[in-house]
């Protein structure tokens, strides 16, 4: 059951995962299947051992039925994530990551961790990356200006997390600009 808009603060993480499930990922099918039409489009044909691109939701469905292996996106590996953690901890700006990297990584790690090289290290690096980026977000909110905010390279989950604080802070700043506090010395 969906909450009324007045009670919703932000999109929930499972809702963000649902949106991310439309992203295309590569699979190695273990079964042959003709091209199949869905509301979101037609996918296939699937011919083992040739790779195919399908939406994440379809890859998860096939993986749970043991009918495919999910190929990790190029950014879901130890080397890439280690590089991003290093950039996040040494550079003042956010490093570039796919918009829905957090949601896609969670789904793949939950369903297909056996298809990944070193999934425990990947989980650890994703956690380190999240913590470093959250620290930058908090610092960015301290520098908030009522006229402009630029936080490039934030992913959808990070935007969703800071949205409630940002909206509230912008409302307060707007009120202060419109109705400045009188100087008690005048």
TrEMBL record:
GO BP terms, alphabetized: chromosome segregation; DNA replication; double-strand break repair via break-induced replication
Cellular compartments annotated: Nucleus
Domain GINS subunit: 75-175
GO cellular component, one term: GINS complex
InterPro entries recorded: GINS_A, GINS_bundle-like_dom_sf, GINS_Psf2, PSF2_N
Domain DNA replication complex GINS protein PSF2 N-terminal: 12-71
Keywords from the UniProt entry: Chromosome partition, DNA replication, Nucleus
Pfam families: PSF2_N, Sld5
Domain of life, per lineage: Eukaryota
Sequence similarity: Belongs to the GINS2/PSF2 family.
Subunit and interaction comment: Component of the GINS complex.
UniProt-recorded name of the protein: DNA replication complex GINS protein PSF2
Organism, as annotated: Crepidotus variabilis
Lineage: Eukaryota, Fungi, Dikarya, Basidiomycota, Agaricomycotina
